[in-house]
Amino acid sequence: MGHGDTGLALAWQAFVENGQLNLPAVKPVIAQSWERSLGYGVNPHSIGHNDILEAHILREKLAANQVLLDTAAGAMEALYRTLQGLGFTVLLTDHDGYILKTVGDAGFLDKAKRVCLSAGANWSENIKGTNAIGTALKEANPVNVFG
CA angle, 12 as apex, 8 and 15 as ends, to 5°? Predict the structure, then answer.
């Protein structure tokens, strides 16, 4: 988190330590995700738990989502060209939060892979807690998640 997120960091600490929600500092969509994540039993101190598909299951999932992959390919490449060199990755997931495809700078993709932001990894809230992928899927709306 950046310097401007000190209030959010303190709100997160208060939530993790004693369940208090400081709603002025925390957007309702994030507060609701924190509560859902707590209910799922996600460890608030670590995102170490991973759900990564075995290669043959990932191949089946990719085949089942071929229309989505084909439809998104052009938009993903165009978005990547806009962000190229800025340290971003463009991700496509299925409705369950499994990453199907990534497009990005090689160096950043290597870093992303180390934290399981790669094809076959599940980033749903019940696995990873509050995060852009899982929270957007749960809310059925775009969200910004920092930290």
Answer: 135
